[in-house]
Amino acid sequence: MVIKKKGQQTMGMPARREASRGGRWSVVGGRDQRKGKRAQQTMGMPFGMIFAIFLIVVFIVIAFIAVSGFLDTGKSASVGMFYDELQGAVDNAISGQSSEVSFKIDLPSGIKKVCFADLSSEITNRGAEYDAIKNYDVYEANVFLVPPKYAQNMQWKLIEKINISKITAVKNPYCVGVEEGLVVKKGFYDKLVWVE
pTM for this structure? Predict the structure, then answer.
């Protein structure tokens, strides 16, 4: 490819551009290389910007997924800790001669009630709470969280050393609102704990 300035012989070498004379470039035997590079620059810049925006969007999506995963783990931990703390309060009451201790319920925001039930006995409190937990009668459990869909796959638990027949004597299932809290009780001659 030979480039020459109009009106000037170059002997096979490209001539220098003279800005003061306003010379024009022409191409002999090929396309103008300056035009090609300019086209690459104009096409390369938007592609680089689009790629950078794409990467930013990907990083933001990954960050949201990670944060929601951490939040779900926190909710699961909260439900598991509730069961552990309730079992601890029952164990502490059993170890004493008599006890009456308030127990604060700390659960994820979607859970409205904690229900104590003996699903193998007669159901005396048929309502929305029972409808939410009636399918768990195949499990050996006595504590249920309502509504179950917010319980992070821990809708039920068997809490040991509680007198479930005394708790559910009047209402089976016996449900307590999360904001109300529980009172863990044990009388002097009692071998098991009950909850109000």
Answer: 0.66
